[in-house]
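User: Reviewer 2 asked us to show a designed sequence for the structure in our supplementary figure. I'm pasting the structure tokens here. Could you produce the per-position amino acids so we can include them in the response letter?
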């Protein structure tokens, strides 16, 4: 019982700041655009992205250079992404062109999503082949590698388990390589969460937890409302937070200022209890510079209560709502309405998801 009380206390306490005197910084105003990795494959496409962003006042590009543990840059850690021409470095080209036009580039890294559900990576060097034991396992003992395409439709990809020894360090090395080799302005984490409450039961994760508290979560928890369930949930939540902290320390090693942010589940309770993503604590404790809650709605009257709740719980400082423009194709007036909601409620910026669907849905014209 003493061990249980100790671990519950430890994971509930706020961690010390990475650097005691450092204070979180963020742009006073942010107009951002997510750019999915498939749009970075050629110089012509990148040129179009930069031209479009510049023409509508976008200041920050969140470029997905690591979506499924494959690199859209030159890497010694990740295999190169399929579809990128040999000898072409998308990130280097993007940074060069974007900085010349006064745009900031944030490297968007999907933290725990390692591979698509319906297909497998082509490179034998891919992490799911090198470390299949790192892949998320459900409570019945099934790895996501064994799931069929129709199972668990809410799980968008094959996830790595942050509780499995080695996973956090692997992600930190990816970020260390990126910021050491490229003049990036920011690091932006996505999918920095569990796929759901039924996951987290990899052998490595269970062993690490059992070594700490003395019992196996896969067999000892008999009730979702039990004390043991709460301890297990807090431990998983802490694995995500520790990942954020470790990457923050890597970023802090750099002599230049690099902005650190995360895309997060906008509903605080769902984020914390279903996905073990305690992002409000990250803000309070200065672990990240800002967050982008993904408030994706078809209509502005749905967005209003969501942002009102966010404002009431975490305020508007260092919080830039993500607007799901992909839901608004062909509806420029609705996009403008949602922008007005964000501004009216006092948020000082927003990020649009995402470039391709906005271009195809004729939405950029509404921003001019």
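Assistant: Here is a per-position design you can include in the supplement:
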């Amino acid at each position: 019982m003493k061990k249980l009380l100790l671990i519950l206390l430890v994971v509930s306490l706020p961690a010390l700041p990475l650097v005691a005197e450092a204070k979180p910084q963020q742009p006073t105003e942010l107009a951002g655009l997510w750019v999915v990795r498939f749009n970075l494959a050629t110089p012509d496409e990148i040129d179009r992205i930069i031209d479009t962003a510049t023409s509508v006042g976008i200041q920050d590009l969140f470029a997905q250079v690591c979506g499924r543990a494959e690199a859209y840059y030159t890497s010694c850690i990740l295999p190169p992404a399929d579809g990128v021409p040999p000898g072409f470095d998308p990130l280097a080209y993007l940074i060069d062109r974007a900085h010349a036009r006064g745009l900031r580039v944030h490297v968007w890294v999907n933290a725990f999503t390692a591979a698509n559900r319906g297909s497998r990576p082509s490179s034998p060097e891919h992490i799911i082949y090198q470390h299949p034991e790192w892949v998320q396992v459900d409570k019945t003992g099934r790895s996501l590698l064994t799931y069929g395409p129709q199972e668990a439709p809410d799980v968008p990809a094959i996830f790595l388990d942050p509780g499995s020894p080695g996973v956090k360090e692997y992600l930190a090395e990816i970020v260390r390589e990126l910021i050491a080799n490229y003049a990036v302005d920011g690091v932006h984490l996505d999918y920095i969460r569990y796929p759901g409450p039924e996951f987290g039961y990899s052998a490595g994760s269970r062993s690490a937890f059992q070594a700490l508290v003395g019992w196996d979560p896969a067999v000892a928890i008999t009730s979702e409302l039990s004390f043991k369930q709460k301890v297990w949930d807090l431990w998983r939540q802490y694995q995500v937070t520790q990942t954020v902290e470790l990457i923050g320390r890597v970023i802090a090693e750099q002599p230049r200022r690099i902005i650190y942010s995360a895309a997060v589940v906008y509903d605080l309770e769902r984020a914390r209890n279903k996905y073990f993503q305690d992002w409000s604590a990250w803000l309070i404790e200065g672990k990240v510079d800002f967050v982008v809650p993904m408030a994706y709605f078809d209509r502005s009257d749905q967005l209003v209560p969501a942002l009102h709740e966010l404002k009431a719980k975490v305020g508007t400082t260092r919080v830039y709502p993500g607007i799901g423009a992909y839901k608004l194709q062909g509806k420029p007036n609705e996009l403008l309405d949602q922008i007005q909601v964000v501004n009216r409620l006092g948020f000082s910026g927003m990020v649009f998801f995402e470039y391709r669907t906005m271009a195809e849905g004729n939405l950029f014209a509404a921003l001019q």
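For the response letter, you might also mention the following. Residues 297 and 303 are 6 Å apart (CA to CA). The domain at 2-15+30-113+165-295 is CATH 3.20.20.80 (TIM Barrel).
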